[in-house]
Amino acid sequence: MNIPFVWNWLSIALLVLFLLPAGYWYLLVVGAFLRPKGLPPAMSFPKTHFAILIPAHNEASVIADTVHHLQRLDYPAHLYQIHVVADHCTDGTAVLARAAGAQVHERRSGPRTGKGAALSWLLQRVLSNPEIQAVVIFDADTRVHPDFLQVMDAHMQRGAAVVQGQHIIRNPQDGWFPALTWAMFLVDNIYQNQGRVNLGFSAKHMGDSICFRADVLRHSGWGEGLTEDYQLRQRLLLQNIRIAYEPRAAGYGEAPATWHTAQRQRARWLRGTRDASRQSAHLLLHHGLQKRNPAMLEGGLQAYLPSYSTLTVLALVFFGVQAMTLAFWGVPNPKLVLVWGSLAVALFLYPFWGLWRVRAPLKAYLVILTGPVFIAWRTWLAMRVRWQRTAVPWIRTPHGEHRQ
Question: Which residues contact 168 (CB under 8 A, 6 or more apart)?
Answer without folding.
Answer: 182, 185, 189, 250, 251, 252, 253
